[in-house]
Amino acid sequence: MVNKKVLALLATAALAAALALVGCGGAPASSASSASSAASGASAAASEAASAAASAASAAASSAASAASAAASSASDIGSEAAKAAALAHAGVAEADCIEIEVKLDTDDGVVHYDVDFKAGGQEYDYDIDPATGDVIKYDSEIDDDD
After folding, report:
1. Is residue 87 located within the same domain as residue 60?
2. Alpha carbon separation from 27 to 34, 36, 115 (Å, rounded)
3. What is the pLDDT of residues 12-53, one digit of tens each?
């Protein structure tokens, strides 16, 4: 979209300069100052077009940087299934033996982690799993009082 605007501005500026030089547009070109004035107008239009192009390029670069950051962020997240698998493996519990498995991405004291909670074999388990590495940050288990 911006490229079409830039091209249109440049074409308009070039046409205005050419018309001024050959004396078209209703009045003959009476002096070099008319050509100079037209050329100055063309130069201003070209400058405006270049500024618009630079602004568009800057916006595109910013958008690309945001996309790259988002891609890097999602690439470093192991996902909820891997977090669940890490917690179950650490606890030595098979998923088939679990009741009420819950996995959610959470933040405690500014630290992002997967909170994995499940019950198995009369125990309640609570795990915090690092979303980038899959390492166990902390864990707790206690007797399930709900039985």
Report:
1. no
2. 11, 16, 79
3. 555 555 445 445 444 444 444 444 454 455 455 555 655 655
Tokens 């002096």, residue located: 31
- Do 49 and 22 share a structural domain? yes
Q: Which of 29-43, 51-65, 77-91 has the lowest mean pLDDT?
A: 29-43
Query: Are 129 and 106 in a shared domain?
Result: yes
User: Which residues partner with 146 through β-bridges?
Assistant: none
- Listed in sequence order, the residues at least 6 apart from 103 whose beta carbon sits closer than 8 Å to its beta carbon are 80, 81, 83, 84, 114, 115, 116, 117
Count other Cβ atoms within 10 Å, centred on residue 139. 14
Domain membership of residue 103 as a residue range: 80-143
Distances (CA, A) of 94 to 20, 88, 89, 118: 84, 7, 8, 11
Which tokens sit at 114?
């997967």
pLDDT of residue 105: 96
**Is the same domain home to 43 and 84?**
no
pTM of the model as a whole: 0.50
Task: Report d(CA 37, CA 22) in Å as an integer.
Answer: 14
